[in-house]
Amino acid sequence: MSKSCVVLGLGSNIDPIKHLRLALAEIKRLSQVSVINIASIYESDALLPENAPANWNKKYLNSAVELEVTNFEPLKLLKEIKAIEQKLGRAGSDRWAPRNIDIDILWAQDFTLNSEALNIPHAQILNRPFALLPLLELRPDFPFNEPDWMWQNPKPFHTEISKQHVWPKFAGILNVTEDSFSGDGVTSLGRPPSITLRLGQLLDAGADIIDIGAESTRPGALIIDPDEEYSRLATTIDVINKYKADYNRQFEISIDSRKPEVMQKIINNYHIDYLNDVEGFRQPQMRELLKLTTAKAICMHSFSVPPLKNETISESEDVWLYLINWWNNLKEVFSSDNIALDRMIFDPGIGFGKTPQQSVDLLNYLEGFSSIKEEIYLGYSRKSFLSLMTDKPAHERDPETALVTEAINQAYAQYLRVHDVAQNKQAITARTLL
């Protein structure tokens, strides 16, 4: 059994960030393929023929994906990625016309091929900075004759790292609690304008999702009455829906609650995109609620909520294998309840049921979850494991949170739940620029 390193190039100029994310998800599902890493997202002008229609001139988003392929057969992989293109809506069209997704094999380690069907390395790689630069980001050892444009600015096709688009979706935290562990609850201010202010800050910073929680999960936090929790959430959603209408803003809403009676009232009265359960939908009543909505289920691993220091995965255990087994068992439960698995989102529960060192280890090696094909959600913002690197109180840990964001493997981070969206998005962009 042989393993080969292969790099794919991705490009899209029709709803491009959506289609890049969908393409990555499909690539992760391929048999005999493990995703190792992904490059930053680059912007470029469209490559156009003379006299192209004006509506073809749409900016592209581009990136690259590094794979480990077992028993690499190039024409088989080519067939599989063309099937992904077709699944994502790539229809037969004129050459260089706008497309939902374009996937190419750019390079394979210690392998060359020149045929009518396929060239490896890609025949035009040196003429396309939007393909070469992402490849070099992943594989600086790629052997090539440096083109004249390498040190020019701007690059051909105005190719540059995107300052607007990043791989993960950002879930901005909107706590409507009086005892949030990080001191950011807004209910204590006592009026909807405080919610509107926090909402505007998150959206202006680039949040894709607003994650609303009305009960603190910090150690020692009091459990609040379900009616009070619902009242806080409903008030907040009313403010959010008015904001959407007044400012014509489009974003998704996530509700963070572990109480079935609260979730029941919410989905009966509001459209919600994500149900976020820190108890991992282990209550049958919570899973039954999923049958009443199309919302995705963010399933977090935990032993106790609030977390207890003495309830953690044993330090003698392989923490990745433990969580993978937990996830596979949960998928079996969802299947037996006739809930579609593609609605499940895996959250390893950083800081819940893990020692501080286990949390750090998980974040340092997210590739350990390569067998998990579902989307992955990470919530590490301001959490106590960061005390390994700072003595600051929770509300001052945003710089340390951003350092984690800069370091993680984004191939295994489809969602990042953070307090300071702007600082964390900037960390992703800056890591490649520097």
Short description:
With 434 residues, this protein is an alpha/beta fold.
Give a written overview of the molecule:
- The protein has 434 residues and is α/β, with parallel strands linked by helices.
- It has two domains: 3-161, 7,8-Dihydro-6-hydroxymethylpterin-pyrophosphokinase HPPK (Alpha-Beta Plaits, 2-Layer Sandwich), CATH 3.30.70; 169-433, TIM Barrel (Alpha-Beta Barrel).
- It contains eleven helices and 16 strands.
- It has helices at residues 16-28, 74-87, 129-138, 192-205, 226-247, 260-269, 284-290, 319-336, 356-364, 398-407, 421-433, and strands spanning 3-12, 33-38, 42-44, 60-70, 102-108, 113-114, 119-120, 160-161, 169-175, 209-213, 252-256, 274-277, 296-300, 344-347, 375-378, 415-418.
- α7 links the parallel β12 and β13 (296-300).
Helix count, per DSSP? 11
- Portion in strands: 15-25%
Share in helix? 25-40%
Shape: globular
**CATH C-level class of the largest domain:** Alpha Beta
- How many domain units? 2
Beta-strand segment tally: 16
Strand pairing plus helix content: what structural class? Answer: alpha/beta
What is the CA-based Rg, rounded? 23 Å
Q: Look at the structure and name the CATH superfamily of the largest domain.
A: Dihydropteroate synthase-like
- Sketch the topology as an H/E string, one letter per element: EHEEEHEEEHEEHEHEHEHEHEHEHEH
CATH architecture of the largest domain: Alpha-Beta Barrel
CATH topology of the largest domain: TIM Barrel
End-to-end Cα distance, whole Å, is 38 Å
Largest sheet: 8 strands, parallel, barrel
Mean pLDDT: 94
Given as residue ranges, the uncertain stretches (5+ residues, pLDDT < 50) are: none
